Amino acid sequence: MRNGWWSRAGTLFGAVCLGTAGIALAGCGGGGGDSALPGVQALVFVQRAYEREDLSHDVASGSGQVIDYQRYTPGGAVMVLEPPTPDGTLRNLTEGFEGVDVNGLDLSFDARRVVFSMRHADDDHYHVFVTNVDGTGEVRQLTFGDWDDIRPIFVPGDRIAFVTNEPYTVMGTRADEYNHGRAVTQIATVSIDGGDADRRLCAHNLSHSADPFLVTDGENAGQIGFSRWEHLGPVNDVKLFRMNPDCSGMEAIAGQFNRGAGDNADFNSLVQATEIAPGQFLAIGTSRSRTIQSGAVIRIDARAREGRDPLRIDVQQATFENLTPLVPTESESPPSGVGRYRHPRAITGFEGQILVSWSDGDVNDRNELAESAPQFGIYLYDVESGRRTLVYDDPNVWDVYAMPVMPREEPAVIPSTVSGAFEPARPAVIGSIDVAETSLGETVRGAQFGEGVSLHDALLEATHVRIIEGFSSEIGAVGQFGLTMHEGAAILGETPVYEDGSWSAQVPAYLPYHLQPIDRFGLAIRNQMLWIQAMPGESRQCGGCHSSRAGEVIPRMGATTVAQSVGPDTSTFRTIPDRVELPWAGAASVQNVQDVLDRNCVGCHDGGASDPFAGQTYTVNVTTMEGEMMTFEIPYLDLSSRPISTYYEREVVTYPASYVSLLYPSAMMGDSVATGTVAPEWIVPGDARGSRLVEVMNAVDEAGTRAWSDDAHPLHPEDQGVTVSREDRLVLIRAADLGGQYYSRWNVDGAGNWAGTEY
Question: What is the pTM of this model?
């Protein structure tokens, strides 16, 4: 496809012979039976109902997120339209079932079979089915179980990849906090012949994985692409990822960098992607919620434009072009006067045109309140003119997931790259060639780095890499982890960085981790805000700290790294009881952060007569979603365990005074207004180096050297005659760097059940 194919439309709705809202009328250019897709013999697509039995409209089932697999409205079908015209003949491939709803489909490479996810009246869950496009033969069910299997696609080697909310571990399905869906999804595969008897689960993420698609061109042909909801502290978006069919090599390909340029490009989610050329994709760019998985059509070019291989995908060089620039994409998800799009797909032989589902009007979860569901029909969208030509639209249902019934080349099967890939007990290995190698132009400030040094220079002082497992609220009745956006965190270890910058460590497979290179004071130099995973037996070695994928990282000393010569650190391959967690208070079996404060700080900072901040508070005024006005008095610095209440994430919460004092200045949201002498950000979640508490107390290395060494930063409370051990200082540093959580596994109900759990 030529580059000119993708030039942005100069005049949207500028074509002649258009109906209302820029839609080409069925009779435009010929009779009513003319096809908008000449040469395409048939179209397969999904019809989804939106009217309940009482005739009310089920738009998002109250969810409105980018993934709606739990929305079930009977009355749908898998349909074949032949020829693909508004008055073509329809063939219902699921007419043998009652109460049908379908959530995703794909065609086999020879275009003879269709795989789809269906829920029906005799099953409480979505499962994967396969049948023939011509309507012959049986509709065969491939997956079963008390979970949902959705969005299936064919992959080389007679396998089906799909998304499932099957429980991640013996502890149950991840139930993510904040504004995520409560049952998190992951990618899985089955063979067409074996079905669930050959079911394989991929490595886990903390949030949803969704919308798998096949990478068919270039060096990555045969890989599985997918959208992944990334939540890690302040990061809360949906990026594009890819991996091998055996679930190894999972990495981001677009959405981590360079978003927000151009008209209506400030999207935070990329969903429903398909490949159009090597390293180039179409996707829907949208708000993370409220737009019913619809939005603007985004063209993504993730090819490296520098380095040794111009076709290599490099997430840092990915660019984005909004092909429907009048469609709003910002997080407020405003009403759209030009409608929104779903499921964009380029078609061979139709250069410059995209098969889409489109609805006019608001297209928002507010439609549910107004009892006016969007009306998604199938259209051919011309990029240059902005013209939409009607292909098919049944006004009583949504017509979505459309695919032309055309054969396509099957990529070669990618052989497994790991040994024992589905043996959960096998460790994985993660590491870096040179942790100081980075293509990020960031500056690191604070402690020994003063007003700032380059990230590369700061990383040269890394002595260890902190490996942090993420867990979410499957641990119990925890809606959020405290006054922070960070998830649950457990340190598997702080593995050494060798003199050449290399490091390597064994970790349990399947789990999500993020990394922090740390200096000799135990302070994170950078907090990696991206989850990484590995399969059993997989070895994942990156170049450095976000080093460019377009370049090549060479070991500093010889042909191999020191870490390769020494072998991976095995002390990091730990079960749950041996991982370091930092509950704030209330855990009987492990040390609490409050224990450190009680030992060292409460004697002077308990609000009593000897407290220099006794009686000093600031006022926080809150306006709730319901319009209620609330007022709270927050202590400037009270490190005692007395309970106090405040407002966070739309509810009144109660924590120890120490936790509220130290976390609330950085936790206040837009619904809160503080007056008076507001305390500094004592703890900045995820950033001990930028936390005032850590700076005031200072940090020391094993030799006793201070991180902040000038006269303005004496050791505290040593300057008041109280000695604090380095170990206690490290507890506070780690608590800040991990995210300032109140909860860990050990201060929730049922904590005793965790001791024997291994994963």
Answer: 0.91
